[in-house]
């Protein structure tokens, strides 16, 4: 594949996971001629930091922000976040909107410009995030404030991938996030569970390639 036709996918894992969870998708995307970066966020995967060393969500997401700073001027990437990783790609889109062609939320937390996620009922929030939250509460917990703006994050194209068999993020919660984010394109994957990159890697790869080609 010619270099100018390659897309650069940056894959951001959910809480308690690491870059390893993308191994099937990385192989498929690279086989399709794409460039792929799968990151370990701080204290995740093989990253050397310990969870106790992190004091903020900014600390946790630092590896992603550092990767974004290395993207050359004029180049745009496809950000892909899974589960809690949605907060990370939202923050990256907020800080580097000119470097993002599209942000793809794969059954992921998707911040809204109009309302923080913590505005929903606390029990629903706990149900939606209990399997992917850290053992500590970050000082700048991304669910409790307005981490994104209309001018930056709001200017970036966004796609939400709805995994129909996801039992981790409840359907009501996912549809609430979508309703609070006008303009977001929604793609549905039948028979796909929360860990879609492991259970349906080929289908996810094909969908991501379709999305990347649409949002140049």
Automatic annotation (TrEMBL):
Gene3D superfamilies documented for this protein: alpha/beta hydrolase
Entry's Gene Ontology molecular function annotations: methyl indole-3-acetate esterase activity; methyl jasmonate esterase activity; methyl salicylate esterase activity
InterPro entries from the UniProt entry: AB_hydrolase_1, AB_hydrolase_fold, MES/HNL
Superkingdom of the source species: Eukaryota
Domain AB hydrolase-1 residue range list: 8-126
GO biological process, one term: jasmonic acid metabolic process
Protein name in the entry: Esterase PIR7B
Species, as recorded: Cocos nucifera (Coconut palm)
Organism lineage string: Eukaryota, Viridiplantae, Streptophyta, Embryophyta, Tracheophyta
